[in-house]
Amino acid sequence: MAESSISKPRKLRNQTHRLSYERRKALYGYGFLALWLVGTILFFLIPLGKSLCYCFMDNNSLKPDVGGMREAWLSISDFGWLANFRYVFVQDPYYKQHLISVLKDTLLTTPLILIFSLFIAVILNQKFKGRGFARAVFFLPVIIATGPVYNIINGDIAATGADSGAQFSTLFETDIVDELLEFLGVMNISDNLSSVINTVTTNIFGLVWNSGIQILIFLAALQNIPPSAKEAASMEGATAWEYFWKITLPYVSPMILANFIYTIIDAFTAADNSVMARVLSKQLDWDYAYAAAMVWSYFLIVILALAITVGIINRYIFYEVD
């Protein structure tokens, strides 16, 4: 009886210490989470809410003032609260042109980036000498893909503030493609066709530069293919072409959707995006209400386009392989 009376308090004390330790761990987690939560509220949610409010304010009155911004709401009657959006889509001479250009370029380049990334990932998944170096070369743009570096390599040295007469990036110029197409007479067939060919061919370096993350995701998916699938395919006498369509593509198809979403978001938020450049120019002119209306319109259009395309592609994705 004495031993049982002594052991029970020890068990209670152990449980008490165990609960207090778990609570301490929970408090540590909440402490780290609190820093992120405070930063999210102060530097993301509050500015996001203010930018949404700026869309429905008078642009002529929304100017910097002592202690903050001088704000004046638009009238609700006669749809006056949509005045900034009417300016964006009716009066602004450049916004719609830039928006259509960005949507068209994204529509053309996104499939090319996905196909190129999958092709390179399949090659890098093979066993050959120097495979590690090749993987590092294709992933290198992700590490150094800053705005000034990309502008220098792509030929836009003036955008970096350097001497515009420098000839550092002559190796990466792709004007020879235009000259070749013009020599063959392709550029004179149709303006729309020449525009498409020009967009696709003259931005080859940009396609390679923007494929690093996609290659890495596809490569991780390829490495998750079980060896038994390849052994079964070889026993059945499947060719490499059949193995790709019957085994590789079904296993990799879920990552196609993930790479598709990433590629579209990356294209719409690129540093050389003409829509974002137009927004920044209006902001520098102190047209904060117009800039906010442009940003939120662009955001809603991107979300709508992404939802439609994801809904279409999602029907052709193989989430399970029999």
Written overview of the protein:
The structure is a single chain. The chain has 322 residues and is mainly α. The protein folds into two domains: 2-84; 87-316, MetI-like (MetI-like fold, Orthogonal Bundle). The protein has helices at residues 2-54, 83-91, 95-124, 131-144, 147-154, 175-184, 191-201, 204-209, 212-223, 227-235, 240-268, 274-284, 288-313; strands spanning 63-65, 68-70. Strand 1 (63-65) and strand 2 form a beta hairpin. The chain starts with a helix and ends in a 9-residue tail after the last helix. Mean pLDDT is 77; it is low at 163-174.
Lay out the secondary structure.
Blueprint: H1 2-54, E1 63-65, E2 68-70, H2 83-91, H3 95-124, H4 131-144, H5 147-154, H6 175-184, H7 191-201, H8 204-209, H9 212-223, H10 227-235, H11 240-268, H12 274-284, H13 288-313
Antiparallel strand pairs: 1-2
Helix pairs in contact: 2-13, 3-9, 3-11, 4-9, 9-11, 11-13, 12-13
Structural class: mainly alpha
Counting DSSP H or I runs of 4 or more residues, the number of helices is 13
Distance between the termini: 63 Å
Numbering strands along the chain, what is their spatial order in the largest sheet?
1-2
Main sheet: strands, sense, barrel: 2 strands, antiparallel
Shape: extended
What would the average pLDDT be, to the nearest integer? Answer: 77
* Count of β-strands: 2
Catalogue the unreliable spans. Answer: 163-174
Radius of gyration, rounded?
28 Å
Helix content: over 70%
Number of domains: 2
| Quaternary organization | single chain
CATH topology category name of the largest domain: MetI-like fold
CATH level-four homologous superfamily name of the largest domain: MetI-like
Beta-strand content: under 5%
